[in-house]
Amino acid sequence: MESEEAVRNLIGAQRKGPSAQQLWREAVRAEFSNEGDLAERLGQRLITIPGRTAGDIVQRLRLLRDKPLPENLMLRQVSARLFWGDSKVLDERADLVALVLGRESPYAETPIQLDVHLSDDSFNAVLMVENPAAFIVACRELQKEPLAILCTHGFKASAQRIRKVHGCAPFYRRMGEATLQAEKRFQDFLFSAQHGALPIFFWGDLDWEGLNILKSIREAFPVARAWQRGYTPMVKLLIEGIGHTPEQADKEGQREVDKTGCEYADSVLREALLSTGLFLDQEVLLGEELQRTDGRGSP
């Protein structure tokens, strides 16, 4: 009988080398040889960087302990300093940093940037807009209404850390009669447990991703609901056949949302998507279509 090696040579097969996970574990054991539990736990947290060996990466990770960086740095700054200018290596890895240090990580995640438009100190509702272009239009067309308008940049406003003082960085655009008092009121709203005292609305693309964003926003702001004033003309356009298929806009990966918790979204918006099979981006609306014609107040 042919030997295994002979058979491999005959068919041109090559023996497989160690896996990336195996190389990582070996590198971790080499750097943290006298710390059994740490080596075991760290060995399960594989990091790969093209062009760098597991040993290179673990040695840089070790510097967290051997040459501590200032604790007022953000996690992305630490990552860039350690890993050859790459600021994203430690994203979602604060627990790994804590593991190496043996204590809670002192490095904060990058605060979420919030763009906030204020035109009146006594705003009585908050409107969250998904996309920057639509946010600019809303700021222009709704500037005479007592609204605080916030650009969510997709999912950003859904993160729970948006409710924490050190978790976000609001950038204000004060217009009209708004003063510094408006900024204080908005921050009180954002960081207070009483944020439900003001109505909160979300307006985004009319697609499954938009409904998913609304669902996520409601995890941080349970009173949030879809902004009917913005969505009603979009539903009308969809029913008239104006829209795009998922394939036309590279949105095939979007998955149907069963329930957001907002009654209007779960009935009217969901039904429009299911019945037409079409999507519609919020930028389709002209500025005047956001303005009220019935004389009632916002929203």
Please, could you describe this protein's structure?
With 299 residues, the protein is an alpha/beta fold. It has two domains: 20-101, no CATH class; 112-290, Dna Topoisomerase Vi A Subunit, Chain: A, domain 2 (3-Layer(aba) Sandwich). Helix content is 39%, strand content 10%. It contains eleven helices and six strands. Strands 4-1-3-2-5-6 form a six-stranded mixed beta sheet, sandwiched between helices. Strand 2 (125-129), helix 7 and strand 3 (147-151) form a beta-alpha-beta unit. Helix 2 (20-31) packs antiparallel against helix 3 (36-42). The relative contact order is 0.10.
Task: Give the SSE map.
Blueprint: H1 4-11, H2 20-31, H3 36-42, H4 54-66, H5 75-82, H6 94-101, E1 112-118, E2 125-129, H7 132-141, E3 147-151, E4 168-174, H8 180-191, E5 200-203, H9 208-220, E6 225-226, H10 228-239, H11 263-276
Parallel strand pairs: 1-4, 2-3, 2-5, 5-6
Antiparallel strand pairs: 1-3
Helix pairs in contact: 2-3, 2-4, 10-11
Residue windows where pLDDT falls under 50 for at least 5 positions: 293-297
* Oligomeric category: single chain
Rg: 26 Å
Mean pLDDT, all residues: 87
Number of strands: 6
Number of helices: 11
The top-level CATH class of the largest domain is Alpha Beta
Topology order in helix (H) and strand (E) letters? HHHHHHEEHEEHEHEHH
Beta-strand proportion: 5-15%
- Percent range for helical residues? 25-40%
How many structural domains in the coordinates?
2
CATH fold type of the largest domain: Dna Topoisomerase Vi A Subunit, Chain: A, domain 2
Q: Which strand order does the major sheet show? A: 4-1-3-2-5-6
Mind summarizing the main beta sheet? 6 strands, mixed
What characteristic shape results from the CA principal axes? globular
